[in-house]
Amino acid sequence: MVSVANDETFTPPADSVLWNKDFLIGAATAAYQIEGAIHEDGRLPSIWDIFSATPGKTLAGDTGEFACDHYHRWPEDVELLASLNVGAYRLSISWPRVMTIDGQPNEQGIAFYRKLLTALRAKGLKTYVTLYHWDLPQHLEDKGGWVNRDTAYRFAEYADMISRKLAGLVDAWATLNEPWCSAMHGYGTGHHAPGKKDVVFATQAMHHLLLGHGLAVRHLRANDPQAQVGIVANVGRGTSTDSSAAGQRAAWLFELQHNNWILDPLLKKSYPSALWELWPGAEPTILAGDMDIIGTPLDFLGINYYFRTNVVSDGKHGYTEVDLEGVERTQMGWEVYPEGLRHLLVGFHRDYPNLPPIYITENGMATDDAVVDGEVNDQQRISFLNRHLAAVDAAVKAGVDVRGYFIWSLMDNFEWAFGYERRFGIIHVDYATQKRTLKRSAKLVTEFLAQRAAQ
Ligand code: FCB
Question: Which GO terms describe its biological process (predicted)?
Answer without folding.
Answer: cellulose catabolic process
